[in-house]
Amino acid sequence: SDKMAPEDMLFSYKGILYPITVCRPETLEVLHTFEARSDDVILVGYPKSGTNWLEQMVKELADAKYTEEEMKERINAEKKLETFQRLEFGDPGIYERMKQLPSRRIIVTHLRPDLLPPSIFQSKAKILVLVRNPKDTAVSYYHFYNNLPLLPSYDSWDEYFADFMNGKLTWGSYFDHLLEWNKYIDNERIMTISYEELKEDPILGMKKIASFFGFSLCEEDFSRIAKKTSFKAMKEKSSETHGKFGDALFRKGVVGNWRDIFSKAQNEEMYQKFQDSLGGTKIASKIKYDVYC
Ligand code: A3P
Fold this sequence. Notes:
Largest sheet: 4 strands, parallel
CATH topology: Rossmann fold
Radius of gyration: 19 Å
Shape: globular
Distance between the termini: 37 Å
Structural class: alpha/beta
Oligomer: single chain
Order of helices and strands: HEEHEHHHEHEHHHEHHHHHHHH
Helix content: 40-55%
CATH architecture: 3-Layer(aba) Sandwich
Number of strands: 6
CATH superfamily: P-loop containing nucleotide triphosphate hydrolases
Bound molecules: adenosine-3'-5'-diphosphate
Number of domains: 1
Strand content: 5-15%
CATH class: Alpha Beta
């Protein structure tokens, strides 16, 4: 295959794995120099929680008041700076270039709060934390590893499952990620939303997001954006919007896909691990795990 050797694809930084083709140690080294602005919109999600979907939704919500022409200008500004607004991606120069982006910046990250630049918490920037049930997240990540040339492939689901449970994947442990974010859950500048609630009622989800960030939109805006950000619509445009990553990023877009691949024992193991690590926390209650047993 056209894949690199697994040991060349990943690197470990402060005990957490990252893919070498999208993140670099020297960038993580200067991450703390990122300067948050009070009007930044920060979007957070463990990989495969639906980050790209949320990003698209929030961009549309934030930009609803711009004309087509103004939107183009904003997008071109990003392109010219070669800065996609992923906090931990790219070369170490991104934090300087991000200073040149016009407000309101939308910044996306997969990082836990203990790994984020301190200015994010010192500023008044609001943070939206996206969560997804662990089983669908695990399945989505499995296919992502196997479908992307820049991540190692797994010979079997069982082997992968063990790594997911032990947090030996890029961006670390799903469970640690949620546990760390749970510490901030009562902060008024933080809101959590789940993949499942966005699937169930995208318009209601978007209304919650808009009210949290203070975006004002009319009913027609919400229904227009819901159509534009449906799985089908985003998948159709994926090669245009996400290039070679399109196919792997927009895979199924459903709730409950874990049923196709989890064994009964793995289902029980996951339930136990979820209870042991997150049981009783507020963030766990956002996930409504019981519904997916
Ligand atoms: P599946 O692999 O289960 O299909 P991320 O963007 O964080 O990498 O998450 C990717 C997951 O979000 C994938 O899940 C993908 O299909 C799903 N997704 C992407 N766009 C979506 C949309 N518009 N609606 C629902 N799910 C979407």
